[in-house]
Design goal:
This protein has 460 residues and is α+β, with helices and mostly antiparallel strands. Helix content is 35%, strand content 25%. The protein folds into 2 domains: 2-255 and 309-392, no CATH class; 398-460, OB fold (Dihydrolipoamide Acetyltransferase, E2P). The protein has a 5-stranded mixed beta sheet.
C-alpha cells in the first residue's frame, strides 16, 4: 500500500481527463432526475409486510447503495437464507426515462474521486437502497441450503423490509451477524470444493481516496467479505437453477482454460518455484494458493488471464449454461442497483417462483442484455486500467533514475510484465531471458502522467 501525495494535482487532472475520454456521465439529465424524484415517492402496495424480520446488511463501510440485506434461520438440518434484494423494478418502469438511461449506462462506474451511478442517487442511495432508516420495498429470495451445501430456491416474494443494522466488512463482529452466517459460508465453501469449483481471488489493484489524498494498493479479500459472498453465490446458483427448470432467463457463463493454457500455466508455476503435482488439477491447485504471498498471488493473476472472460447468455433449449469458475450454472441477480441485468433476472425469477408468466417486457429485454452488458463491462475495464495506469505514473513521478526490485508475472515475445516488490505497481519491461517467477532489477527511465505511462529498463 502506498499513499499518493498529489501536490501538483496531476491525479485529479488525470481523473477528469479519463472521465472525458471515456464519456463517463457526470450527471443525469433533468428529466431523469425529475422522474427519479417522483418514483422515490411511490408507496409500495404489492409487498407483504416483513418488517419484523431482523435483516442486516454487510458492505464496505462507505457504501450507501445497498442491494442486499439478509437473515439466516435453521430449518431442521438445513439453513434458510432470506435474502432481500432492492426492488428496483418497483421504481423503474420498462420504457420510461429511468429505464432508457439505465440501458445507456449498463452499470455503475466507480472511480477514486466518485462514482457515476446506474440510477440517480435519490433511488440508488435512498428510496431503493436497503438502508436502516426505514422500511424499503424488496424482493426476498428464500434460499434453502442443505448440510452438503446445495442451494435451492424455496420461493420469492415482494416484501416490505426494515434493516436492523448497516454492518461493515472491516469492523463487523460475529455477534452482530445471524447465528448461521459462518456455517452457511462453510457449507458453501465445502460444496464448491466438492463440485470442483476453482475460483481464485488474487489481490485487487486499487486506487482509493484516503486522508492524504489517494492510495495505490493490492487488497486481498477480507474474511468477512468472502463469507458474505457465499450468500450471493448460493442465491445466484439457486436462481439459475430455477430459471433453467422454467426454460427461461439470463445466465452468467465462463469457459475453462483450454489444455494449451493449462500447459503454459504449469510452466509458469515451475518458474515461480511453486510445487504443482502432476496428477493435481488446476482447480485443486488454485485452491491451495495464498493471495498474501507475492509469487502465489502473481500466479493467481496468471490463472485469471488464462481463462476466457465471463459473459451473459440467454436460455437455449438443450444447452446448460456453465460458469467454469463456479462449476455450476450461475446468474447475476443480487446487485440490481449497480447492474442493469440483475433487475430483469429478479423480475424473471419472481414470476417463475410464483407460477406466473414472465412479463412480456422482461422476456423481450433478455436477448438484448448480453450485448448491452458486454459493452458496459468493456468500458468499465478500460476505465479501471486507465485509473491504475494514471496512479502508477503519479506515484513514480520524481523517481526517474531509481532502480527497483521486481518479479516477472507474465511474458510474451515482446515484453515481460513485472510487479515491483515494494509498491503496488505492475508494468512492462523489454528484456530477454526472463521467465515468470524470475526476479530482476529495473530502472525507471521516464514517466508521463498525461499519457499515463511509465518506462522501465532491466539493469544488471
Amino acid at each position: 500500500m502506498k499513499s499518493l501525495r498529489d501536490t501538483t494535482h496531476a491525479l485529479d487532472v488525470g481523473l477528469a481527463e479519463i472521465r472525458q475520454q471515456f464519456e463517463v456521465p457526470e450527471a443525469f439529465p433533468h428529466e431523469v432526475l425529475f422522474a427519479a424524484a417522483n418514483s422515490a415517492r411511490r408507496e409500495p402496495d404489492e409487498h407483504i409486510d416483513r418488517t419484523e424480520v431482523p435483516f442486516v446488511t454487510l458492505d464496505p463501510a462507505s457504501s450507501t447503495d445497498l442491494d442486499q440485506a439478509f437473515t439466516i434461520t435453521a430449518s431442521g438440518d438445513d439453513l434458510v437464507l432470506q435474502y432481500a434484494i432492492a426492488d428496483v423494478a418497483w421504481f423503474v418502469s420498462d420504457g420510461d426515462v429511468l429505464d432508457t438511461q439505465a440501458w445507456q449506462r449498463g452499470t455503475t462506474i466507480y472511480l477514486p474521486d466518485g462514482k457515476s451511478g446506474l440510477y440517480p442517487s435519490v433511488l440508488s442511495e435512498a428510496a431503493a437502497s436497503l438502508l436502516p432508516d426505514g422500511p424499503r420495498p424488496a424482493v426476498v429470495f428464500h434460499v434453502r441450503l442443505s448440510p452438503e451445501g446445495t442451494p435451492t430456491l424455496d420461493g420469492a416474494e415482494r416484501a416490505l423490509v426494515r434493516t436492523r443494522a448497516k454492518l461493515a466488512y472491516d469492523t463487523v463482529s460475529p455477534a452482530e451477524l445471524p447465528a448461521g452466517f459462518e456455517e452457511f459460508a462453510r457449507r458453501m465453501a465445502a460444496a464448491s470444493l466438492a463440485r470442483g469449483a476453482g475460483p481464485v481471488d488474487p489481490p485487487e489493484q486499487l486506487v482509493e481516496r484516503n486522508s492524504h489524498g489517494y492510495r495505490l494498493s493490492f487488497r486481498p479479500r477480507l474474511a468477512s467479505e468472502s463469507a458474505n459472498a457465499a450468500l450471493s453465490l448460493a442465491t445466484n446458483i439457486a436462481v439459475a437453477e430455477a430459471m433453467l427448470q422454467a426454460h427461461v432467463g439470463l445466465f452468467r457463463v465462463m469457459p475453462s482454460p483450454d489444455d494449451g493454457a493449462v500447459r503454459r500455466l504449469r510452466h509458469t508455476a515451475t518458474a515461480f518455484g511453486l510445487h504443482w503435482p502432476k496428477e493435481q488439477s488446476l482447480d485443486d491447485f488454485a485452491r491451495t494458493l495464498d493471495a498474501n504471498d507475492a509469487k502465489q498471488a502473481a500466479f493467481m493473476l496468471a490463472v485469471r488471464r488464462a481463462g476466457g472472460g465471463a459473459s451473459y447468455t440467454t436460455y437455449e433449449d438443450g444447452v446448460v449454461p456453465w460458469h467454469a469458475a463456479m462449476a455450476s450454472s450461475y446468474a447475476h441477480a443480487t446487485a440490481p442497483l449497480r447492474r442493469l441485468a440483475d433487475r430483469y433476472v429478479v423480475q424473471t425469477v419472481l414470476a417463475v417462483a410464483n407460477g406466473r408468466e414472465v412479463p412480456s417486457a422482461v422476456a423481450e429485454a433478455l436477448p438484448r442484455l448480453p450485448t448491452a452488458m458486454a459493452r458496459a463491462a468493456a468500458k468499465g475495464g478500460q476505465i479501471d486500467r486507465a485509473v491504475i495506469d494514471l496512479a502508477e505514473a503519479v506515484l513514480l513521478e520524481g523517481h526517474e533514475g531509481q532502480t527497483f526490485l521486481a518479479v516477472v508475472i507474465d511474458d510474451d515475445p515482446e515484453f515481460s510484465r513485472i510487479q515491483l516488490r515494494d509498491i503496488a505497481v505492475v508494468a512492462k519491461v523489454k528484456a530477454k531471458g526472463l521467465r515468470p517467477g524470475d526476479e530482476c532489477r529495473v530502472k525507471l527511465l521516464g514517466v508521463d502522467t498525461a499519457a499515463r505511462t511509465v518506462h522501465f529498463e532491466r539493469v544488471a
